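DATA SHEET
Item: assembly model
Revision: 1
Owner: S.N.
Input lines:
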Amino acid sequence: MKKWILAASLCCNMAFADVAVVVHPSNGDSLDKVTISRLFLNKAKAFPNGTRAEPVALAEGNAVTDEFNGKVLNKTASQLTAFWSKLVFTGKGQPPKSLGSDAEVLSTVAGNPSAIGYVDAGAVNDSVRVVATF
Amino acid sequence: MKTKLAIFSMASLLAAPAIADVQINGFANLIAGMTLDDDESVYDYNSDVSFDPASVFGLQVRGEISDKLSATAQVVGRGRDDYDADFEWAYMTYNLSNTTSISAGRIRMPLFKYSASLDVGYSYHWLTPPDAVYGIDFNNIDGVRVDYANYAGDWEYGAQFTTGRAQADTTISGTPAALTLDNVLALSFEATRDWFSARTLIATGKTSAANPEFDAFVDGAGQFGAFVPGASALATGLRVEEDTGTFFEVAVGVDKYDWFVGAEYTQTEVDGSVIADNKAWYVTAGLRFGKFTPHITYEVEEADNGAQLGLVAALPPTISSGDAVTDATWSGIYQAASGIAAQQNLDVSAVTAGLRYDVEPGLAVKADVTWYSDDLNDLNDATLLKVGVNYTF
């Protein structure tokens, strides 16, 4: 029975691959899609509460990254590379640090009140606060 | 000396352990081009395949000294300069707040929509931006730039103020000259809302361009000022010395992802100089089918030499001073002035059709065909084929 549940959850994670946007539990701000997108695209540098934001991403090529880039940032990987090349080569900003796994994102966000990241919705634990799911 | 200083600052950037974060980014545009007919040449290309005119390699090092302070240096090698590495940017940026930063050093002048990423071919759909608008002698300036960026509702907007001094190589009536722009002041605004974007810039600067040959000619004309009406006006009206230059730019774009259109217009005037009033614009459109982006662009550049022709029209073609040598000298000057004034006229257009293929994020392969047309002289018409690779990391 347990096996069936596991299989079902695997299947559903694959099918929906929902992305959870997570912040430090001490961060009480509510963030909508536009705000999250601005934080990840260097357009807004601070949370609505005024704290400077430090976004972290997952590595390129990760299915969750593609999901987040498409659903929240409305950009393909190529578009996002072009977007960052414009900022990087003008000194206006650098893309968020990208981390290798959901676990790394969760521990980074759990350990930094300024951090905001995204992970597979199935990977979320209570060391972080989910601000939105897409 | 400048290079030494720059290398020193770069080396210290790399070496200093105090810098928490050093980012290295780079770009490469390897572009081959040729005209399709033996006797055609355009934008420094001719019928032999050449990589030189538009190929660019660049490396950027940025060190974050603190949350607020960073230092950036960019070394660029251009095919047309034999890939001699040059520090095109070297500046420090201080974040005054979450919305405002100030940069000082050698910086990019935000003259155009694509100025910021002009050398990063990957960031736009063409192999090179339309020459009519982007074919300008200088893009960098030694000075200070203040950047402001904010958002309100669905709008994101920004403003930039740039001041400083720019030096570049140019040509005056076909011969090389050293261009200097002093007391440059530039103000630009931009706004973006979802798929719509617009920006504009207005700039002024004291423009000087030194060329021994041209200056000697102007001095010669000036010496007739005392006894030939219009000769003084000709000398001051052609000489490029601390003349007020103004530059205006406006661009709009719509990007609905599946398709995009854009247009940009520029206007350049250098009062009381041989440089004719210049107007240039382009419209561009493209479609995105997965990894393929076919696109088309129409560009126009016109220069109006009315002011220069007016100066010549006020002159007598010949004089009778009683001295045959003086009379002949004046005839020579008159003819040279007529020739120079006539040369400043420009009326060219071009259509470019191209295809971009995104191989993977950071790597694109492109091919562009440009049909260039000189409406004043059909002999300059040319068809140019370019293929190239844009890479960025």
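QC remark: Chain A has a mean pLDDT of 86.
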